[in-house]
Automatic annotation (TrEMBL):
Its EC number is 3.2.2.31. Adenine glycosylase active on G-A mispairs. MutY also corrects error-prone DNA synthesis past GO lesions which are due to the oxidatively damaged form of guanine: 7,8-dihydro-8-oxoguanine (8-oxo-dGTP). InterPro entries: A/G_AdeGlyc_MutY, DNA_glycosylase, Endouclease-III_FeS-bd_BS, HhH-GPD_domain, HhH_base_excis_C, HhH_motif, MIG/MutY, MutY_C. This is Adenine DNA glycosylase. It comes from Maribacter arcticus.
Length: 349
């Protein structure tokens, strides 16, 4: 039996029951693929179900605000995916009359849709013979054929795409593409692959050479950048006992674009209370008394793909109103990064 035939046979016997597999609606397939970028299935599935419930069609998503989409996305990270999701929904509605393009080349024109996503949608929804190449496919192909070209190099991306096209099953591309991705996720997993019971083990080059754990090869990651964040949480309680604070929206092209956070002081190293007091109290100078309290003595290290955020939270109690203040009751309505969401939960707003 051919490589693709074995993959198909395995898939028909072992495929998981996943919510997006119950439909060939390109909107739902697109939604699942965007969510599953940089996200494990176990984490992504509940988000998919919530998105489908709140935005059952692409029209519903296009008519929503970006903040609604970001709030529902909160916790998945890589928030540019959510912004692209919303932008693409608008494009599909406004430029394609609410109908997703049915070809690989046309799908590539959508914001946030690259080679993999266009291949997945076109093959699964429209049976177009396009080979998918994601992390799972890289792993299966590199191990089975014993290829040590770095998968994140220009040469590797081109080589594995070509190889994937050669071995794919054009007559059952829908199941084949889902099958090879599923095979990589379950059978040929990153750690502890099930080689003993693998239907490809007799012809797997990596297994024969004892190099399964060494493949696939990746070029070294970009050096991690350390950043030092000091969040100031102003708190004002009025005469009726209502509590207020302040949030600010992040702008620019850096991390967490358009998400909300507490007033931030970024520094070259962790600050002591005197440093924070000197740099922030001027905003309240002449407006009454303030009290600064260190919330966490040890900095929280929040790890992003190429950045480590060393973070402290400082409570600033004041007896005067806060500029642009927000009531505690409304703070949970804002889309915020996980780092801020965890603090809000810990502080029990």
């Amino acid at each position: 039996m051919s490589f693709s035939g074995i993959i198909l046979d395995w898939y028909h016997q072992n495929k998981r029951s996943l919510p997006w597999r119950k439909s060939l609606d390109p909107y739902k397939i697109w939604l699942s693929e965007i969510i599953l970028q940089q996200t494990r299935v176990a984490q992504g599935a509940p988000y998919y179900l919530r998105f489908v419930e709140q935005f059952p069609t692409v029209h519903h998503m296009a008519n929503a605000s970006e903040e609604e989409v970001l709030k529902l996305w909160q916790g998945l990270g890589y928030y540019s995916r959510a912004r692209n999701l919303h932008a693409t929904a608008k494009i599909v509605v406004n430029q394609y009359n609410g109908e997703f393009p049915d070809t690989y080349n046309e799908l590539l024109k959508l914001k946030g849709v690259g080679d993999y996503t266009a291949s997945a949608i076109s093959s699964i929804c429209f049976n177009e013979p396009q080979a998918v190449v994601d992390g799972n496919v890289y792993r299966v192909l590199s191990r089975y054929f014993g290829i040590d070209i770095p998968i994140n190099s220009a040469e590797g991306i081109k080589y594995f795409k070509s190889l994937a096209e050669k071995v794919m099953d054009v007559n059952d591309i829908r199941d084949y593409n889902q099958g090879i991705m599923e095979f990589g996720a379950i059978q040929c997993s990153p750690k502890k692959p099930l080689c003993l019971h693998c239907p490809l083990n007799e012809s797997c080059v990596a297994l024969q050479k004892g190099i399964v754990g060494q493949l696939p090869v990746k070029l070294k990651k970009t050096k991690v950048r350390n950043r030092f964040f000091n969040y100031i949480i102003p708190i004002y309680i009025d005469a009726d006992g209502n509590r207020f604070t302040n949030l600010q929206q992040r702008k620019g092209k850096g991390i967490w674009q358009n998400l909300w956070e507490f007033p931030l002081i970024e520094s070259n190293s962790m600050l002591e209370i005197e440093d924070v007091d000197n740099r922030y109290k001027q905003l309240f100078e002449g407006n009454g008394e303030i009290e600064l309290i260190e919330f966490n003595e040890v900095a929280i290290i929040h790890k992003l793909s190429h950045q480590h955020l060393h973070t402290k939270f400082w409570i600033l109690n004041t007896n005067t109103e806060i500029p642009n203040q927000i009531s505690f009751e409304k703070i949970k309505n804002f889309p915020v990064p996980v780092l801020i969401a965890d603090f809000i939960k810990a502080f029990k707003f």
